[in-house]
Design a protein that fits this description.
- It is a single chain.
- 33% of the residues lie in helices and 34% in strands.
- The strands form 2 sheets. It has a 6-stranded mixed sheet. A two-stranded antiparallel ribbon has the order 1-2.
- Helix 3 packs across helix 4.
- It is α+β, with helices and mostly antiparallel strands.
- The longest helix has 24 residues.
- It has a single domain, classed as Nuclear Transport Factor 2, Chain: A.
- It contains 4 helices and 8 strands; from the N terminus they run ββααββαββββα.
Length: 164
């Protein structure tokens, strides 16, 4: 069954717990609420709650860098940098299967005067933690603005990632 929310419709505030269990046809699925937890954490701009949704072996794929970034420390640090860069961030729609491990969250934001549209593609591991996060943005002017803004953040991101 497909699930999505309407444009601009926020999710209700919830506590973050990636191990919430839901019963699906006699099965227990530990990842049933993980995407909601990630979305709520991002919308609340809560870096600790965002980090709690990430697997230790998560791989982050940036819209402006070819090389993937493996590991929870660097991914969490990059996402903290994104929180500092994006203004007026909001999720518009969510696509995925109930109980499924693949999800897409369509978003809009701003970097200065540049409007950004993008999508977070999430894959969940068997524990309900995000083990793959791929981000894409459009238009080209938004990708360029994001690349510039994140380059300005990268020394701090590296310091945060090595600090733990």
């Amino acid at each position: 069954m497909r699930r999505w929310t309407a444009v601009g419709e926020p999710l209700p505030a919830i506590a973050v717990s990636c191990t919430r269990e839901a019963s699906t046809e006699g099965r227990t699925e530990p990842y049933a609420g993980a995407v909601i937890d990630f979305r709520a954490a991002v919308e609340a701009r809560d870096p600790d709650a965002i980090a709690a949704t990430l697997a230790d072996d998560v791989v982050f794929r940036s819209p402006v860098a070819f090389k993937p970034y493996p590991g929870k420390a660097i991914t969490a640090a990059i996402l903290r940098g994104v929180l500092r860069v994006f203004e007026d961030f909001r999720y518009l729609r969510e696509f995925g299967d109930e109980g499924g491990r693949n999800h897409a969250l369509l978003f809009a934001a701003r970097i200065g005067d540049v409007a950004v549209e993008g999508c977070d593609f999430l894959h969940l591991d068997e524990r309900g933690l995000i083990d793959e996060l791929t981000v894409m943005v459009r238009p080209l002017s938004a990708a360029q603005a994001l690349a510039t803004a994140m380059a300005d953040q990268f020394e701090q991101i590296q310091r945060e990632a090595t600090a733990g």
